[in-house]
């Protein structure tokens, strides 16, 4: 059986906790990046060029270590649905993303995984704690 590691804005191999967790399972890993533009998030030409070049470099660094990064353009849910069916996916590993549009995409993927019986591992490794309240000793 296989597991997906979903790379998003975290294009690195060192200290990438979702990847490290997936490697520990000894499963066949499907490394994936999906470029999905939403109505609220479209990047300009310069940023698009930078992203494409960064993905090529990242893809090459994975290839140098004997792996393969699959890069898709389109609807993330459609991509994952196909991958789950084609590769008998049992687990999905990915890093937390707190942008509102990315959270919407995550929710769709979490629902998709649940419907296929795929275990999802949402790993927070960008911040120290998920605490969205602000505490201040100052009284205004």
Quick overview of this protein structure:
By secondary structure, the chain is α/β, with parallel strands linked by helices. The protein has helices at 17-24, 45-64, 76-87, 100-116; strands at residues 2-6, 28-35, 69-73, 89-95, 119-123. The protein has one domain: HUPs (Rossmann fold), CATH 3.40.50.620.
How is this structure best described in words?
The structure is a single chain. With 140 residues, the protein is of the alpha/beta class. It has one domain: HUPs (Rossmann fold, 3-Layer(aba) Sandwich), CATH 3.40.50.620. Helices cover 41% and strands 21% of the residues. It contains four helices and five strands, in the order βαβαβαβαβ. Helix 2 links the parallel strand 2 and strand 3. The C terminus is likely disordered.
Order of helices and strands: EHEHEHEHE
Q: CATH H level: which superfamily?
A: HUPs
Name the overall outline.
Answer: globular
Topology-level CATH name: Rossmann fold
Which strand order do you get reading across the main beta sheet?
3-2-1-4-5
Second rung of CATH, namely the architecture: 3-Layer(aba) Sandwich
pLDDT < 50 stretches: 128-140
Distance between the termini: 57 Å
Q: Mean pLDDT, nearest integer?
A: 86
Instruction: Supply the number of helical segments.
Output: 4
Total domain count: 1
Estimated share of beta-strand residues: 15-25%
Question: What is the highest CATH level, the class?
Answer: Alpha Beta
Number of strands: 5
Alpha carbon gyration radius: 16 Å
Helix content: 40-55%
